[in-house]
Amino acid sequence: MKKKKVFVFFPDGVGLRNFAFTDFKNIGEQKGFDIIYWNNTIFSLKDNLGFNEVKIEDHSAHPLLPIYSRARKRAELNVSRDKFKDDVYPTYKFPFNYKGLKNIFKSLYTKWLIGLYSSEKGIVKLRKKINKLERSTSKYKYCKAQLDEHKPDLVFCTTQRATQSISALLAAKDLGIPTVAFVYSWDNVPKAMQVVETDYYFVWSDLMKEQVLQYYPFIKEEQVFVTGTPQFEPHYDTSLKQSRAEFFKDYNLDLSKKYICYSGDDETTSPLDQYYLEDLANAVRKLNAKDENLGIIYRKCPVDFTTRYNAVIEANKDIIKILDPIWKQVGSQWNQVLPTPDDFKMLYNVCEHSEFVTNVCSSTVFDFVAHRKPCIYYNYEQPQLKKGIRDIGQNYKYVHFRSMPSDKAVIFCTDKNDLEGLVKQILNGKLSNIDEGKKWFEVIAGKTPTKASEKIWNAIESVLN
Prior knowledge:
The chain is α/β, with parallel strands linked by helices. The protein contains 17 helices and 15 strands. Strands 3-2-1-4-5-6-7 form a seven-stranded parallel beta sheet, sandwiched between helices. Strand 4 (154-157), helix 8 and strand 5 (179-182) form a beta-alpha-beta unit.
């Protein structure tokens, strides 16, 4: 019997971690699929990984696409605000730019579109308009010709949030090729980040399926498959595990110390993030003065290129050890900073050999829960907060944090003065969020985090049959 040919489509680099560097490809091949990576990124899967790939060289998009996409997102958020009577949705919006004539025109045009299309029917019309614009591009014709030549049985898009994927997926649909979009991140559905329309959607959990149907009434239940996400599978791959001595030697860590991981955030989410690192360093210094022997592993956010932490790290270099993620910058955009397979091993061992993690509202809580390690979320204002700087407190009001089974799913630090005591209690085994955190992990990623790749291929099989 002829193998079914699946195009695994990378509109940008964010899906590489899930679908190129895990066992996803091997599992698909074991199930008898012919897998070709349809690659819109500047990362060569053929040269770097030896994968069979078809490169998309035409990256044209309609010049009005950014304006219409932004209008679509804001219109959806307006509809959600009115439909659910909830003021959280406007907080997902980025401010308009009025610097220079070009930006003024773009902003005013976008606002006019939002006024015109902020209804459920309006959004459907707006999406149709976007599709019409993208069908007129040379990229649409280019992708159609590639699909005509290679004749895949299905196109699996690794993220639902990239505008670069619209024309390619329209070409597939117009040729009658089934299309699937994987919903990439745990917070994406309420934030109106579903850019593409496909025949089917694969989601992490029952909760995410519920959300897709709630926010997108034009999607039917039978179009949504719950598969989990490959994102956490490497945490269960014990071949990545190093001994403590080996890991500490590789990264020049002090074997006599216990390390706390500080997981950095991007500047949008936590603009004053460096001061939380400083607070942790001060708490560690006080505890070390009371006969503890602690250090901090600082792992930055891979797409943060700011120098904002430098002064804090320099002032505390006896305590803070930098372990940068092993990611590769292949372009200037945030989604052109790509993970490498080596980073899986590093992250596995950072989780395994740290006592716990601290951060501002990051999904690393789940990475550490997979290793049965606690997590502190900072939830207090810094004195440096002033007008024009975003308060991190609004992050915890977002819809995806309402999925917590209880407020014990993480350890919240709501006052800088409590931090030292919380650290001490965790180290003494008197405070933990592991059991409640595991329940939260199940709500977000399902009960079988090791089976996601397999479930995705089973779902693809179902769609093709």
